[in-house]
Specification:
Length: 251
């Protein structure tokens, strides 16, 4: 898609919040239900178009989508997202992700009251081979014999028990130790506590919430001579969403 054309057609959307900026990097607080970039002309607002409007001098016409995204967040996920502003910075940050030196912390609201204080989910994942479900991931309890699985580990810590829109829910911190596609979503579903509003992993049943309640909260990238250590605003508070009502104080 032509970036200029997309920007011209872009409808109003929440302002792109910048939480870190240097000569080499920008970290934004991505809005939920926004793609990072797209080749589909119907996707009139993406993070790439928002960045191009906000930082026209940083548009790089030599690369696809004009910006170097160091990592990715799902369409439905909000929060901290890092963009490199030059090729060298992109390579350095990419190596940190590849070598698992980056610390990522997510916040989520999950269905039900989690009984344990903390859970380590160490379960490989693989793409769902079923027709119509290939956009989803599966936990590899009993994968097809010819299916290659990938290791995946998530640490879950309970922050608050509460109610969301009158139904039991738990606010949790999720720390992925690996970076697999849909890892946090499929791991939460696997242990019986799916993320509130996850349309995909509820098999199109959890449609009442206005968004999927998963947020990239803290991001630490140990770049030499430039430590990126940022926190994005917590959206899962009663002040910002009155449907979330904690039953006990934060742990």
């Amino acid at each position: 898609m032509n970036l200029d054309a997309a920007m011209a057609q872009a409808p109003p959307t929440a302002e792109l919040k910048i939480i870190y900026q240097s000569q080499n990097f920008i970290v934004v607080d991505k809005n939920f239900d926004v793609k990072i970039n797209s080749d589909d002309e119907s996707d009139r607002v993406t993070v790439a178009t928002q960045l191009a409007e906000r930082f026209p001098d940083n548009v790089d016409d030599t690369i696809c989508h004009k910006f170097r995204f160091v990592h990715r967040l799902d369409y439905s996920t909000s929060g901290a997202l890092c963009i490199a502003l030059n090729k060298k910075a992109s390579a350095v940050a990419g190596d940190k992700f590849k070598n698992r030196e980056v610390i990522k912390e997510y916040l989520a609201l999950v269905r039900g009251h989690v009984s344990e204080v903390s859970i380590t989910i160490d379960k490989p994942v693989y793409p769902n081979p079923e027709e119509g479900l290939t956009h989803m991931m599966c936990v590899a309890d009993d994968p097809p014999v010819d299916m290659k699985t990938k290791s995946a580990t998530t640490e879950l810590e309970v922050l608050q028990l509460g109610m969301y829109d009158g139904e039991p829910a738990t606010k949790v911190k999720l720390c992925p130790k690996t970076g697999r596609r849909h890892q946090l979503r499929v791991h939460c579903q696997y242990i019986g506590y799916p993320i509130v509003g996850d349309y995909t992993y509820s098999f199109r049943q959890d449609v009442k919430p206005y968004r999927m309640m998963l947020h990239s909260f803290k991001l630490t990238i140990p770049i030499p001579n430039e430590l990126i250590d940022v926190i994005a605003t917590d959206p899962f508070t009663t002040e910002l969403d009155s449907k979330w009502q904690p039953l006990v104080a934060s742990r």
